[in-house]
């Protein structure tokens, strides 16, 4: 049976992301090799991976295609701000900017960017995002699935559910009425 995985912000080929995000690699080549290995250690050939943007920084289609072809699974892209034509032209199964899926009974809204509200946010849906590289804390209902938060590998729904459960829900504030003079 295939499993479903989520990830974001791999930035394959992006040497400067090592410095920006304090990634523990000496070069982009080392980072790429480590992330390909980490991906394939958890994702099997028949699994599904939702990549929530910023797949690769390279604009060279051959380089991006070579990396893409080394990664296990059927891949779906939710484009990010760094996804150039070389990334967008890959054979992703889907390239919608916002996707909704139900996985293991959890209704998910997938987007590269974190949102304050999203479809179903007041009815138990969970939003998964990237873009912030672990600098924007998740809540009880939304979570950064970027590689910087998950050991440079895709994450499964069980770990997502566990992390969400560890984050307390905020106290509900009573709505404030408008005072009209």
UniProtKB/TrEMBL annotation:
Residues 3-92 form the Calcineurin-like phosphoesterase domain. InterPro entries: Calcineurin-like_PHP, Metallo-depent_PP-like. This is Metallophosphoesterase. It comes from Bosea vestrisii.
